[in-house]
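Sequence decides. Our protein:
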Amino acid sequence: MRPTARGEVDGRASGRTAIEAIGLGKRYRRRWALRDCTFRLPAGRICALVGPNGAGKSTLLSLASGLTRPSEGSVRVYGTAPGTAAGRPVLAHLAQDRPLYPALTVAETLRLGRALNPGRWSGRCAERIVRDGRIPLDARVATLSGGRRTRLALALAFAKRPELLLL
């Protein structure tokens, strides 16, 4: 798939909304990490979220993926609340810290990804990303370099075949 000059990836997705936030906010104790955030992201677009440290970028992605609950407002992903049974299959989120289980091998990690994503998992996709990165299947995640851990996390995210990928 190639994006057009306007960032559209799939013209058939026109009219659908990938993410919609209305008055979204997140407070940690007395400090607001994100406040009064309202936007609508059409499906089929590639979008970058930019801003200085502390602007709320990671918080917004955490809210959109359902890892964090908003303090105020709402967010919807393809019309459903993120983090719910209906919302989980359409979304993959690769957080900055690349949460992986260090005691597992690469092969065990891929099997876990398959078990957690029944019906949507593409083992061929995951294996190709791992193979192209020359990551040994028997290597423990704890022994992988940062770059290889990132590649493994990307393999998990892409193999889920999400409609929305948050990086």
Observations:
- The chain has two domains: 11-92, 106-162.
- The chain has four helices and five strands.
- Residues 106-162 form one domain.
